[in-house]
């Protein structure tokens, strides 16, 4: 059971629509860690004094502050959260125990960040033939992740884990993908969409994922989509 003292020790600085920051908030909730949330509005150009002080190199969020010390970078935060609070009697680990499986999870997490996110950006910002190519590439990448999932309940098996926390925030833009690209993910990636629905049944995920319409409207403004 999370305590009030624990919440005083842990702070997450983030923006409500930041998919990378959603990972940290989901992981903390999944492991039952209480935390204080500080909103950093990314629609404002200038970063707050707190962000500049806690992440002077990148001046970006999310930032996890534990006992006054910052941890930056969403994947870095996930691993830190798991090392500090995971694998306790009432708190299972997010990363698998097996070294090969951990490496596998990290590899696909990198795939999400380096491939899927950049393709999402191209898909939303581009036009004409470039958009069509980005759409095909995005669907191919989502289908590749569906293959990795296979017939498992979650990416690591029966328990929600590291790679689930990495990818599920992206599902908050799936509605936007479909509206923008004119396709149906339940047809294109039925297994992946069943996984999304299973994840959304978890309190840790439901409490964090934003409204999909609001996410798409925000991204339309960010990317200048008419």
TrEMBL record:
Domain GST C-terminal residue range list: 98-224
Listed Pfam families: GST_C_2, GST_N
Annotated EC: 2.5.1.18
Keywords: Cytoplasm, Transferase
GO biological process: glutathione metabolic process
Alphabetized SUPFAM superfamilies for the sequence: GST C-terminal domain-like, Thioredoxin-like
Any one Gene Ontology cellular component term annotated for this protein: cytosol
Cellular compartment(s): Cytoplasm, Cytosol
Domain GST N-terminal stretches: 8-89
InterPro entries named in the record: Glutathione-S-Trfase_C-like, Glutathione-S-Trfase_C_sf, Glutathione_S-Trfase, Glutathione_S-Trfase_N, GST_C_Tau, Omega/Tau-like, Thioredoxin-like_sf
Taxonomy, superkingdom: Eukaryota
One GO molecular-function entry: glutathione transferase activity
Catalytic activity: RX + glutathione = an S-substituted glutathione + a halide anion + H(+)
Role, per record: Is involved in the conjugation of reduced glutathione to a wide number of exogenous and endogenous hydrophobic electrophiles.
Family listed: Belongs to the GST superfamily.
Protein name in UniProt: Glutathione S-transferase
């Amino acid at each position: 059971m999370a305590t009030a003292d624990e919440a005083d020790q842990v702070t997450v600085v983030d923006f409500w629509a930041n998919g990378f920051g959603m990972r940290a908030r989901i992981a903390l909730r999944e492991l039952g860690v209480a935390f204080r949330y500080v909103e950093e509005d990314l629609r404002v150009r200038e970063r707050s004094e707190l962000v500049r002080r806690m992440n002077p190199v990148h001046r970006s969020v999310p930032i996890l502050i534990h006992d006054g010390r910052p941890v930056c970078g969403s994947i870095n935060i996930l691993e830190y959260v798991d090392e500090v609070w995971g694998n306790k009697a009432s708190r299972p680990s997010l990363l698998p125990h097996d070294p090969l499986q951990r490496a596998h999870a990290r590899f696909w997490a990198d795939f999400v960040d380096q491939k899927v996110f950049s393709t999402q950006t191209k898909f939303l910002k581009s036009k004409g033939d470039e958009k069509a190519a980005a759409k095909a590439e995005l669907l191919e990448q989502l289908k590749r992740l569906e293959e990795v999932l296979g017939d498992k309940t979650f990416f690591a098996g029966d328990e929600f884990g590291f790679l689930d926390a990495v990818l599920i925030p992206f599902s908050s833009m799936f509605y936007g993908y479909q509206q923008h690209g004119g396709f149906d993910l339940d047809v294109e990636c039925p297994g992946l969409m069943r996984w999304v629905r299973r994840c959304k049944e978890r309190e840790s995920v439901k409490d964090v994922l934003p409204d999909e319409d609001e996410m798409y409207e925000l991204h339309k403004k960010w990317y200048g989509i008419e």
